[in-house]
Amino acid sequence: MKDPSRSSTSPSIISEDVIINGHSHEDDNPFAEYMWMENEEEFNRQANLLLKQFLFMAQIEEELWEEEFIERCFQEMLEEEEEHEWFIPARDLPQTMDQIQDQFNDLVISDSSSLEDLVVKSNLNPNAKEFVPGVKYLNI
């Protein structure tokens, strides 16, 4: 009886088709896959350039995200301002010097007679020592 694995219908193995350690016998240079190392400095330069480009793009992306976040916060602040009655300087502060002068004139400064009355009615001791913070006084 014949062994089925040796059947004539199975393809025959030709020595040129045999691949050993990832290389066929036809390869002239068994180190072909390592030939990139011949130009290692150029490879490293290109790799560094790609890395720098990647980092630059990542930095730009981060800045864009930051700008978008700030814009969103600013928009939310404006919407909140519209919802509530807030102090808005352009609307609530006087616009002209005349208005500022009118507000300044409305301020009341006490006259000298009321100031003298305040001093006469005072309970403070005019002969008392001057207060200096951090210094303890002894009662002698």
TrEMBL record:
It is found in: Cytoplasm. GO terms for molecular function: mRNA regulatory element binding translation repressor activity. The keyword Nucleotide-binding does not apply. InterPro entries: PAIP2-like, PAM2_motif. The keyword Aminoacyl-tRNA synthetase does not apply. GO terms for biological process: negative regulation of translational initiation. It comes from the Eukaryota. Acts as a repressor in the regulation of translation initiation of poly(A)-containing mRNAs. Its inhibitory activity on translation is mediated via its action on PABPC1. Displaces the interaction of PABPC1 with poly(A) RNA and competes with PAIP1 for binding to PABPC1. Its association with PABPC1 results in disruption of the cytoplasmic poly(A) RNP structure organization. Belongs to the PAIP2 family. This is Polyadenylate-binding protein-interacting protein 2. The lineage of its organism: Eukaryota, Metazoa, Chordata, Craniata, Vertebrata. The gene is Paip2.
